[in-house]
What we know:
By secondary structure, the chain is of the alpha+beta class. It is built from 16 helices and 23 strands. The protein has five domains: 2-129, Rossmann fold, CATH 3.40.50; 138-186 and 454-561, Topoisomerase I, domain 2 (Orthogonal Bundle), CATH 1.10.460; 190-252 and 384-449, Topoisomerase I, domain 3 (Distorted Sandwich), CATH 2.70.20.10; 260-376, Topoisomerase I, domain 4; 570-656, no CATH class. 35% of the residues are buried.
Amino acid sequence: MNLVIVESPTKAKTIAKFLGKDYLVESSYGHIRDLPKSRIGIDLEKDFEPHYIIPVKAKKRVTELKKKAAKMDGVILATDLDREGEAIAWHLKEALGLESKDASKVRRIVFHEITKTAIAEALEHPRTLDLHLVDAQQARRILDRLVGYKLSPFLWKKIMSRLSAGRVQSVALRLIAEREDEIRKFKADEYWTIDATLKKDKAEFTASLAKISGESVGKLGITKKEEAEKIKRELEDAAYAIVSVDKKTTKKNSNPPFTTSTLQQEASKRLRFSARETMRHAQALYEAGLITYMRTDSVNLSQESLTAAARWIKENLGSAYEEANPRVFKTKSRLAQEAHEAIRPTDPRKTPDSLKKKEAREVKLYELIWQRFIASQLPPARFDAVRLEIQAQSSQKNSVSYTLVANGTTLAFDGYLKIWPAKFEERELPAVTVGENVDLKVVEALQHFTEPPPRYNEASLIKALEQNGIGRPSTYAPTLSVIQDRHYVEKDERRRFVPTEIGESVNKMLVEHFPEIVDIQFTAKMEEELDSVAAGKENWRKVIREFYEPFSKHLEKKFEEVEAQRPKVETTDEVCPNCGKPMVVKFGRFGKFLACSGFPECKTTKPFLAQFLIKDKDGNDMLCGDCKEGKIIRKRSRNRRFFFGCSRYPECKYASWKNPAEPVAEEVAVAAGENEGSDDTETEE
């Protein structure tokens, strides 16, 4: 009889279905050993020796597993295949006293998917624990503990209590804060574009100004309204002739199957899932045996999966969608673990429609994974593209020649778009020949302004972290969660990250005094060193020592040198309802709040609504349109989305997702015949 130990009860239940009576499958319910929460738990005098404890909530489970392991002929550790899973297996071996057993009696197995075939294959090829992977996980955990437990007290002393710093979270915060600073400093530039609506017989099409006297017009080529109107007038008086017709077929290939990062990005864009929600549903799908392991940075696909996909395509889509050879993708990241596989369905025959009994949001995520995988093995989509160049010559004196361009695209063969829905604009142009004249219907001069770089949303922030080598697949979701839980950032009404005042204060302090902690290149280099530890090329203690010794000395120096930069206490006209003393504005963990100036004798506090008041176009507090008495304030829903409501709630129940102070975005157009225009898991301490 063999005891098989996995992390979760769901995973245990799925695996048990594939094993016979000779196996007892049990769950450890996650980690059974960890560093203590009440102290640092690392012996700095003994070369960073960690002191692990069994948490109170895990003690009963450890005792049960010990008893069961003692009665078994062998123990099989079947935790996940990444560093975290390897560390859990090692902790199980240590905590259950399995190191004293015969090595042949304690085996480690790994698999990319929870299927009968994969489990059988893993049991036939067990291995020993990979202590290099364990060391890499330990090194990350200890590094994060050292940064968190050493740097956080510095923030408490210099800014305010209950703040925290983290090795990866601080870099993510810096990216968000610096983007916000870019937006504040941005100055918009005005520019104009010229579009002409042309006619050939009864067919109309739009062409855009591309050249003036043979010179290309760049994005900011026309910057004045007067210049735009002059060009418009000349084009209104011009004759139009086709000077070039360029026809070609273009192809668009499908994207590779998902990695952890691209799954989180796409689920954010298409399903509006947070990274945390995406990983929770993906974990459930994996443990149910429906998808492969969901923490991966590789786009590799097994030969079996390629064969299964080709079979499904042939049986369900026909020969037009068959590829002569399977599409194989190469991972771009130099740090990717190529032994892993991309995220894919374990069996393509299990279509999303067949999973209707499962939780709806899990089905949506599965559909995304299934579609992406099948689409990756379909032929490219083909488009017929036509590019027309039209010469416009005005009869006005001293006028110049203008070249306009019209682009048309029609779908010739849907290819992978048969499975992977994507938006594209089909624009059909009339059949014309070189030298043929076309008629003008109207010319428009359109005013635009350059826009600042957009704030990060979850998808774009994860992409930025991945591109810069910050973190690993298991860290993206926890990193995004922790900077929100700490209230360093919040999401605006468009689900984009905005740094809070306290978040900007923390970032400013860290950038100024601990630049190496929030330096992107430095953090990426640390990830590379952790990868070297995992590969057995670096000693984990040496990596930590080289980081900690200069960091510790620098921190000690900064404790003495840096003056406290605590938020200033603001006085208000509001009076404490209990003692009559003035109320003041203070900073707390959740932002600003009103507190009695008589603290600690009087501990009265109130929400500081002024920070949430919405201003109208004249800079005045916006009144509620329903009750005409209350003021519009920004609120937050239970799932942390912003909405706008009346300050007199519950007397007035006005609420809206849209900011009522924001005007509908309109472009300013000066059209022919008009005089005037209208004005997108590992934790840190």
